[in-house]
Every structure is written in structure tokens, then in C-alpha cells.
Design brief:
alpha+beta
């Protein structure tokens, strides 16, 4: 299952201030895996890709803990639609008002990074 959000900001625990967005947040889960995969994209491209140990959901805010103990928060979340006739990435590009080629490239790069993460 893929959940998508438009985040107004992200913040790592090591950051002193919030990083203003918008950010495209993609949470991908598969029932047979014991982790969730996260890809974060901004208008310049891929921001980060993590395998997550846990996701804590609070109203309009998600806190992500990855397998290496890094904590990331995303806030001011708006749920995006991922199902449509045009395809998921085209639909997300329209909703985020970002160019499709950039989102497609960043998504692909995120998948490659996720596949290279050691357990």
C-alpha cells in the first residue's frame, strides 16, 4: 500500500528549525515486510529515502523512526490521492503542482537508495 501526503515541513531531531516545504511524502508498506519504506521529495528532487522501524501518526503530523535510529517528523500533512487513470506519479505531480519528470526521477532514485540499504 502506498500513502501519499503533502507536508508543509519536515524536521530531523538534529535540526534546530523546521524545514519549510512543500514536500511529497510517500509511505510504502508491504504486508510481508517488517518495515515501511519512506521517500521524501521536494521541488529540487529527492530529499531522503529511509526504511522505517515505526511510524507514529498524530493529527496532521507523522514521526518516523528509521532502522538506524534517525528520527524525522513531517507536519501540516494533507492526504493526497494515489489512484487515478493517469497513473500514481502523474496524479501526485498534478496535486503537488510539480513537474512529472522530476517526481518520476526522484521516485526512481529513492527506490534505488532503498534497495541499497543494509538491513
Amino acid at each position: 500500500m502506498i500513502k501519499a501526503y503533502n507536508a508543509g515541513y519536515i524536521k530531523y531531531d538534529t535540526d534546530s528549525k523546521k524545514r519549510p516545504g512543500p514536500y511529497l511524502i510517500l509511505e510504502m508498506s508491504v504486508a510481508t515486510l517488517d518495515y515501511v519504506q519512506l521517500i521524501v521529495i521536494q521541488s529540487e528532487g529527492l530529499v531522503c529515502a529511509h526504511r522505517l522501524r515505526s511510524v507514529t501518526e498524530i493529527a496532521n503530523y507523522h514521526r518516523y523512526n528509521n532502522l538506524r535510529g534517525i528520527h524525522l517528523g513531517a507536519g501540516d500533512l494533507l492526504t493526497l490521492t494515489t489512484k487515478g487513470d493517469a497513473g500514481m506519479l502523474v496524479l501526485l505531480a498534478r496535486q503537488m503542482n510539480l513537474p512529472y519528470p522530476m517526481i518520476a526521477s526522484a521516485f526512481g532514485e529513492g527506490l534505488i537508495r532503498l534497495s541499497n540499504i543494509d538491513e
